[in-house]
Amino acid sequence: MGSRSSHAAVIPDVDSIRRETGFSQASLIRLHHRFRALDRNKKGYLSRIDLQQIGALAVNPLGDRIIESFFPNGSQQVDFPGFVRVLAHFRPVEDEDTDLDPKKPEPLNSRRNKLHYAFQLYDLDRDGKISRHEMLQVLRLMVGVQVTEEQLENIADRTVQEADEDGDGAVSFLEFTKSLEKMDVEQKMSIRILK
Amino acid sequence: MGLQLERDFLNEMTWMALVFHLSRKVTSLVPESCLLILLGLVLGGIVLAVAKKAEYQLEPGTFFLFLLPPIVLDSGYFMPSRLFFDNLGAILTYAVVGTLWNAFTTGAALWGLQQAGLVAPRVQAGLLDFLLFGSLISAVDPVAVLAVFEEVHVNETLFIIVFGESLLNDAVTVVLYKVCNSFVEMGSANVQATDYLKGVASLFVVSLGGAAVGLVFAFLLALTTRFTKRVRIIEPLLVFLLAYAAYLTAEMASLSAILAVTMCGLGCKKYVEANISHKSRTTVKYTMKTLASCAETVIFMLLGISAVDSSKWAWDSGLVLGTLIFILFFRALGVVLQTWVLNQFRLIPLDKIDQVVMSYGGLRGAVAFALVILLDRTKVPAKDYFVATTIVVVFFTVIVQGLTIKPLVKWLKVKRSEHHKPTLNQELHEHTFDHILAAVEDVVGHHGYHYWRDRWEQFDKKYLSQLLMRRSAYRIRDQIWDVYYRLNIRDAISFVDQGGHVLSSTGLTLPSMPSRNSVAETSVTNLLRESGSGACLDLQVIDTVRSGRDREDAVMHHLLCGGLYKPRRRYKASCSRHFISDDAQERQDKEVFQQNMKRRLESFKSTKHNICFTKSKPRPRKTGRRKDGVANAEATNGKPRDLGFQDTAAVILTVESEEEEEESDSSETEKEDDEGIIFVARATSEVLQEGKVSGSLEVCPSPRIIPPSPTCAEKELPWKSGQGDLAVYVSSETTKIVPVDMQTGWNQSMSSLESLASPPCNQAPTLTCLPPHPRGAEEPQAPLYPPSDPRPSFAFPPSLAKAGRSHSESSADLPQQQELQPLMGHKNHTHLSPGTANSHWCIQFNRGSRL
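Predict the joint structure of the above. Result:
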């Protein structure tokens, strides 16, 4: 571990990041490596442009939104802790995560937080609800051109109705969670290498 | 052996299998495969007693050429592909490493047993012979696994791993078997190092070659079905022929034929399902299932019968017991070791219980038996002992393990497969998650599974689908859209299933909404869902499939066709594959009823929730009309000619008949060669409402209220009985909407229409047909109104709304849409102004409906 810890020393605040995100040392080192590779002119932070350089993200229908999620509250740059914090949502849930004492804050990779990450990709205006309009926008991104606009609207209507329980015409986070309660979110929102 | 005899015999066996199906009690405890084997034993015993020699055998040639392919094709074609590829790593590991491990350890251990003197010396076999035997006895058998696991319903991951392993290990088994066999034939002294290398190399050649052959044929098949638009009838044939060609080709080239067919089915399904017609899909599905279960039945029966033939086998207790213990032990050990390794890489580790089931689920079957029969007695002197041992192993695994695995699974509380209906939210969010994960992998810079899947999907979308799918099909293939469509259909059907109690607005909870699913989730929808997802894991039991993961696009169509045409009440959850379809007439009746109801629901929803159905809507009218036009035997063949009097037809709207349902999507409909329904509109006045509405009116209530004699109503309706009302429209040229499909009655009366030409009649239906109107009219007419009437009248708004919608969808700026909208908007007022003729009309209608 000697060489690794010397590596890890490069990362500022490595311990507090580890505590917050639950990443292993090795993962953090790998991510830091990646972070520096993405940071083209060694600024020490990433800008949107850095992330937009990733080729495959450009063809991802949700690419822009995911990039945006790295920059909370309209900030222009993300440092390494912020970068890792977003990625920590995708750490697989492990056994030791479940029996955390309640005093500690919920780990970033809990089911709730995973869902919340997805939720805020839909909720563009951050009002805590996915409106019909927001749903339509997502659908427009996700569904191919072969479905007409009117059909899309119908789908959006139906989707919102399906999840909407209090009848306000929008999907709140609670309703969002409920609509997915049968789904194995822990599995579907985890990436194995991010242990 | 007389072919005729054999055929009779097969008939008899199939009949026997049917008897088993009927006794549900027995089969709920004992897997069918066990019963079939036992029955085979009994039959074989009888034949042996009578004929003094064993007549029937499971011939390896028959088995590999005719019995195995349908089963493998069925399982490949209906393999849940996403699940399969999600677990591909584990499946491959178990299939390749696991099978090699089992073969070598079992063979070596048996040889050790012989060296230790526990096997009788009369079993003349060396190490190579035992390895050969190990290679044929080690492979988990797809037929047996399917037969047993389909009744157990373990969770999908577990199932797909065991089942996938049993399919893919064929390549390994074949190679091992052939290599060992050739070594044995060469004699162990002549085997050189290069031969071992060749053996290893041939493993890759056989497996990859087999897969490649399968994929090539899948490609060909998909490409061919793209061009069968004019020859729908050969589509199912093509599917079977090309898949079988893949099997034969691979077999000829000594490649893994099972792998070839599996890959062919797996690869072609998406495109084929999109290309072929709705009827062909149904045909393919049921033919495949039928063939597979026939083959399976025959295989197990023949296994039982073959076992009786004592001339072929020789018993050695040491060998038999040793083999049994070793295959169980090494299977378990292999599973544990491999799982330990795999779990280092798996997101969701396989736990201990999974491992137990996987070890215990390693069933051996007919493949092993056929292979052992194929051995050459001159080269393998211990063949008879091996045959006996194989029979015992097969019987033990299928009967004992097959019997006990269900209680075991219950006792261990293995996660069962749970079936939940897909909801739009789940579908959408699942796609979102996929995209998110792909993006995160990009950000992290790790090209993992999600990355490659994303890549593949893009490639598929860009090139493959374009190339292999018919353009019209390609356009409407979207998973989210499909789920939406399916949900709508399901809602509609469960609405129908509720029967009459839907009048109140509370009755219209959408059953697919997860939170309020209790009431509406009645039998049909359950059945529908289950049978519709026949896609999945189970080979045979078409309506007890459990899989939540079968949202692959093509499944929608199974659901659709399976659903819409299935008679509802005949279906019980306990029914099995043998109750596939009912009498066609009955089905038609139900269909009419269902579709009428569905139409109402759709349009009711579309008024209420602004949801509309583009695809399914026009059909019901046609079929419904056809049905209740029975008495008006005028038939529909006069239809197209109706165009004739439409001198200034403003709109011609062609709606495909049901068999082209996938093509009938909205405005971009590709005109097919089927008969179309032609709506012709010359929209000048609001009277155009009339024709349309009256048409839908008469379709809609008649089959419901008075199913036995729908035409009574028609006779009473003014435009029928009056014989002249229509003349107005024709001669004075006020109305030009002629929904031709509904107008069989119209045609009938066309000739004698000329007498009545009263303008009030024109107006009357316009008003009366507006939704709340009959209810409004109810008050003056109260005594005349039978209590059941509100419902039919309730249904009017839907039909109206829908009619409007259909037009608006099919051609964006229809004049009548503008006219329709205000009418719909004002429908609440219209009933306030009943004209004189209006009441006249109402009376007639009421009378009709009361009749």
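The two ends of chain B are 66 Å apart (CA to CA).
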